[in-house]
Amino acid sequence: MIAIVDYGMGNLGSVEKALRAVAAEPVITGDPQVLEQASGLILPGVGAFDDCMSGLTQSGLVTPLLELIAAGKPSLGICLGLQMLFERSEEGKSPGLGVFPGRVERFRHELKIPQIGWNQVWVKQAAPHLEGVTDGSWFYFVHSYYVAPEDPSIIATTTEYGYEFCSAVWRDNVFACQYHPEKSQAAGLQVLGNFKRLAEG
């Protein structure tokens, strides 16, 4: 069973549907006990950084999530779910979860912000979540901010939008991406299928 973390925000229905398409057994839940029993966790997020962190805090999920991640639970962050794994964001004042050192920055260029639509992803390290994903594959994005890791070794993919930015990170049991695999057709389903396989051991 893969748990989709429900803290009052996020595109839960589409993530659940995409997981079913790769024969996973998703459960949408905000119950720490169910999260503990799950084989893997997905942290989605849509909206503003402070609102999402507030939702996690008010749901009492910050400590359980950090404990499960630290214990090695396979975890996947999507969009704002990636950004919340970092220490802070230019978008708000709330501290992030601090799983990764670094911050979230706003795009500063003349292209349209937010970036909405399809863009290419370039693989920088062979994360198992990217197995079968061709370098330069197209994924769907909706965002105005991107992560800037302090440790470049965790960068899994990059994307060009005005300039090169980090579009996914990977370290140990945690993979997180700025793009939406649940909206990215075959390439996205490949990522979710890989995560299912890893979560199942």
Task: Explain this structure.
- This protein is an alpha/beta fold and 201 residues long.
- Helices cover 27% and strands 33% of the residues.
- It has six helices and twelve strands.
- The chain has helices at residues 12-21, 32-37, 49-58, 62-70, 80-83, 185-199, and strands at residues 2-5, 26-29, 40-43, 75-78, 86-89, 100-106, 115-123, 137-143, 145-149, 155-160, 164-171, 174-177.
- The strands form two sheets. The chain has a nine-stranded mixed sheet. It has a three-stranded mixed sheet with strand order 5-6-9, with no helix packed on it.
- Strand 11 (164-171) and strand 12 form a beta hairpin.
- The longest helix is centred in the last third of the chain and has 15 residues, at 185-199.
- The chain is globular.
- The chain starts with a strand and ends with a helix.
- The model has no long low-confidence stretch (mean pLDDT 96).
Provide a quick synopsis of the model.
The protein has 201 residues and is α/β, with parallel strands linked by helices. It has helices spanning 12-21, 32-37, 49-58, 62-70, 80-83, 185-199, and strands at residues 2-5, 26-29, 40-43, 75-78, 86-89, 100-106, 115-123, 137-143, 145-149, 155-160, 164-171, 174-177.
